Amino acid sequence: MKEKINEESKQILLGSLLGDGAVYQRAKNTSYYSEVHSIKQKDYLLWKNAICFEKFDSKIRTYKGYEKKQGKYYEKIGVYSRSLNNLLIYRKLFYPNGIKKVRQEILDQINGLGLAIWYCDDGSYHLTKKVVRIMTDSFSYSEQRIIQKWFKGKWNLHCKIIKRKRGSFYIKFDAKESEKFLNLIKHHVPDSMLYKLGHLWEGNSKKIEEALKRESIIKQKYYLKNKEKILRRQSTYRKRAEIKRRERLVKQEYYRKNKEKILKRCKIYRRGNKEKIRDQKRIYYNKNIKKIKERQRRCYFENKEKILKRQIAYNKRPEIKERKRIYDRKRYLRKRSV
Questions:
Q1: pLDDT at residue 26 above 90?
Q2: Would the pLDDT of 51 be above 90?
Q3: Is the pLDDT of residue 215 over 60?
Q4: N or C: which end of the chain has fewer CB within 10 A?
C-alpha cells in the first residue's frame, strides 16, 4: 500500500463495495479489490481510481466481456488492486461468511459521499416519473429492511422495498423523497455522473423532454388500442362508494379554494353561450320531463312549509311588491282595452 487511506478514500471504498466493487481473498492474510464498469463510465472509474484505488497499487484494464442477456460482447473497463493485508479488514466486514452482506456496522460508517458513490454505482433515475431506485438485488429481504430503517433513521428518507418477479428486491423512493435524496448527494457526485441527478442537472432537460414525448405517444397508442377496457374499468372504479366520497370531497375542497375564479369563469361561459345552454336545457327537459316533474312534486311535499315561508318572505320585500303592483296594473289595462 502506497499511503494511508483517508476519510474521502474510505467513503469511496465503502460506497463502491455496497455497489459494484468486490474484495476477494487470494491468500490467508491478504485480499485484493476489483470493480468493473461499462466503457461509457470510464471517466467515473478513473476518478475513483485517482482518489482511492491508486492507494492500493491498482491497475486499469480494458477488455471485451460477454453479456448473456444481450448475447453480445461489450467493451468494459476494470480496476484491480494488489493483494494487500489492509484490504482484509473490508473482506471480513462485507463478507463475514464468504457472501457479501449489508450490516448496520457498515451503514453506520457511511456519510454523504459514501451514499453518493453507492447511488452512482447501483442507482438509477426515472426521467418521467422522477423517482430514484437503488438496485440492491444481491441482498436478502432482512438486509433490505436494515437499509430501509437506516435511510429513515439517519437521513429521514422514506423508501419502499419492491419485490421483482424473479424474487429479488430493490429500494425505491417516491418523487418527493427522491427530490430530498438527490439534494442530499448532489454536491458529492463527480462531473462524469451528473446525469444521475435527473431534473436537478440542466444537462438532462432535453432527455427528459424527449422521454415525456415518447411516454405520451406510448400512452396514446395504448389508450386507443384498449379504450373500451379502460373506460369500463374506470366506470367500475368510480362507482365504488369510497371513491365517490373521495371525489366529492376533492371537488368541494377545490371549489372552496377557487370559488371566485370558478364563478367568474362560469359567468363568462354563460354570457358567450346563451343559446347553446338554452338548447341543452330544453333538450334535457323534453327528454326527462316526467322525471323532473316527479322530482319537483316530491321536493315540494317534502319541504312544503319551508317553501311557503320563503314565498311569504319573498313577497313581503318592497321591490317585489312594487314589481307585482306594476304587473297587475298592466294586466288590468290590457283587459280593459280588450
A1: no
A2: yes
A3: yes
A4: C
Distance CA 286, CA 279 (A): 11
- For residue 307, what are the contacts with CB-CB under 8 A and spacing of at least 6? 300
Asked if residues 187 and 176 have their Cβ atoms less than 8 Å apart, the reply is: no
Distance CA 73, CA 83 (A): 29
Report which residue type is found at 65.
G
List of residues 6+ apart from 1 with CB closer than 8 A = 55, 56, 57, 84, 86
What secondary structure letter does DSSP report for 59? E
CA distance 306 to 332: 32
Q: According to DSSP H, which parts of the chain are helical?
A: 7-18, 42-51, 88-94, 104-107, 112-122, 141-155, 175-185, 205-225, 227-238, 241-257, 259-272, 274-287, 289-302, 304-315, 318-337
Neighbours of 231 (CB within 10 A): 11
For the entire predicted model, the pTM comes to 0.72
Locus of grid cell 296594473: 329
In whole angstroms, what is the distance from residue 171 CA to residue 163 CA? 9
Cβ–Cβ under 8 Å, residues 151 and 102: no
pLDDT band at residue 33, thresholds of 50, 70 and 90? very high
Q: Would you put residue 34 in left (φ > 0), alpha (ψ -120 to 50) or beta? A: beta
Among 192, 36, 208, 59, which Cα is nearest to 116's?
Answer: 192
The per-residue pLDDT for 15 is: 97
CA dist., res. 251 & res. 264, Å (int)? 17
Q: How many CA atoms lie within 13 A of 270 on its CB side?
A: 7
